[in-house]
Specification:
Low-confidence stretches: 3-29, 31-35
Strand content: 5-15%
Shape: elongated
Strand order of the largest sheet: 1-2-6-5
Length: 351
């Protein structure tokens, strides 16, 4: 391994004896979670002995490439369940109900909430399978300043279709209006999971967490590294905190046979790969800062999640759902609630 802008040499010479000693210390805080993965000493050894020519470039600059973020989920998209397996589907209107829906939305836009509600109720009577109508009925009561009645309809909507982010979102807002902040916090977490990239829901979550006296810092988890294949070499760009994550990603991407050896799965988002790289990130960061909390809120949150045995929830919420938000619709209620627990305990803990 060599350094691009500086003298050539081994990994030990480049990282430095002091830093390497830190990185090779026993990882007691993370050993249980990392037992099935290569740890930093193994990662460093593999890179040092590799036939691949790795070049490393450490910088304080932001070197991460932009992440392709998924769109907000459409309220007319829902989770269709059959034999306990969820699939993503879109509500289909027939000619009659389509006309009613159009009229209802037009009346709602004009401020004629009772008229809009009448159309939504008719659709619900004719097509109870279009359960989002229950949520829209609740919305008309909310618009009329009747949160108690709105809450009843939102709860009916959730009972009919748990994976309805709009119902959870509006329920949270109405609970907030009634100063039921703890219940509002729980509901907004579910809404955020089910529509991860909604800016409105994210803003609502920040507001509700503050009212519920929770410590919350907004962030996007964006690992600051970049891999570049140039000629016969692989350049690894990163800032210091992200060093072990970058090294691990380089192995998964370019080391011959590494992906198969570790049992990697799907190519678009590999949970096995991500767990190993995140565990190495946490271990490296902990050693770099000699067991003290660094200033990187993203990595500090990751470490808290690992210590709480919530790394799966971290990966879903902070990475996978941002890329593929509709994946939330394929998860059973228990999994969604587990991610909600991660938000309440790790991302927004009580003060």
């Amino acid at each position: 391994m060599t350094m691009v802008h500086g003298k050539r040499g081994s990994l030990q010479k480049w990282v430095g004896q002091g830093m390497l000693a830190l990185l090779l210390i026993c990882w007691t805080a993370f050993s249980l979670q990392a037992q099935d993965f290569n740890e930093p000493d193994e990662v460093l050894h593999l890179m040092e002995k590799s036939s691949v020519r790795y070049k490393v470039v450490m910088s304080d600059a932001v070197v991460a490439e932009p992440v392709a973020i998924g769109l907000e989920n459409d309220p007319m998209t829902y989770a269709s369940a059959e034999d306990g397996v969820f699939a993503i589907a879109t509500y289909q209107f027939d000619e009659v109900t389509a006309a009613m829906y159009k009229t209802g939305d037009e009346e709602y836009g004009k401020g004629n909430f009772a008229e809009a509600r009448g159309n939504y109720i008719k659709i619900n009577e004719l097509r109870p399978d279009i359960s989002v109508m229950l949520t829209l009925i609740g919305r008309t009561y909310e618009a009329e300043g009747n949160p108690a009645e709105a809450i009843k309809w939102y709860q009916q909507g959730i009972a009919a279709s748990f994976h309805d982010p709009l119902a959870h979102y509006r329920l949270a807002e109405n609970l907030f209006a009634l100063k039921q902040f703890s219940s509002a916090a729980e509901e907004i977490c579910v809404a955020w999971i089910l529509n991860r990239n909604s800016t409105a829901i994210a803003a609502s979550a920040a507001k509700i967490f503050k009212a519920d006296r929770r410590h919350f810092t907004a962030f996007d988890f964006v690992p600051n590294y970049r891999l570049v294949k140039t000629g016969g070499a692989v350049e690894i760009h990163f800032s210091e905190d992200w060093m072990l994550y970058a090294f691990c990603k380089a192995l998964w991407s370019y080391e011959p046979g590494y992906h198969r050896e570790l049992g990697g799965g799907r190519g678009d988002f590999d949970m096995v790969q991500e767990k190993e790289c995140l565990l190495n990130l946490a271990m490296g960061y902990d050693r770099i800062h000699q067991g003290k909390a660094g200033k990187n809120v993203e990595i500090n949150t990751l470490i808290a999640a690992i210590q709480a045995k919530m790394i799966n929830e971290f990966i879903f919420m902070e990475e996978w759902l941002r890329i593929e938000p509709l994946i939330a619709y394929t998860q059973p209620k228990e999994a969604v609630m587990s991610i909600a627990s991660y938000i309440l305990e790790i991302r927004a803990p009580k003060k």
